[in-house]
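pls design
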């Protein structure tokens, strides 16, 4: 098992993850107005509440370049 800092992974992928979250919300709630930056900020806050800072991940999901 490897350990990853989930907060830092999300921060590193923020630009792409924000776009994906935005597209997902628009798909399911097409007529709802929202601010994607605020939604992503709330998402990160929930990750911080629900996940440990360092999460265990099976080695098969980790590759070092």
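designed seq:
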């Amino acid at each position: 098992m490897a350990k990853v800092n989930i907060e830092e992974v999300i921060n590193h992928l923020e630009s792409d993850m924000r776009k994906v979250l935005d597209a997902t919300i628009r798909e399911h709630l097409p007529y709802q107005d929202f601010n994607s930056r605020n939604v992503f900020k709330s998402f990160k806050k929930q990750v911080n509440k629900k996940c440990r800072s360092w999460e265990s991940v099976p080695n098969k999901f980790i590759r070092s370049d």
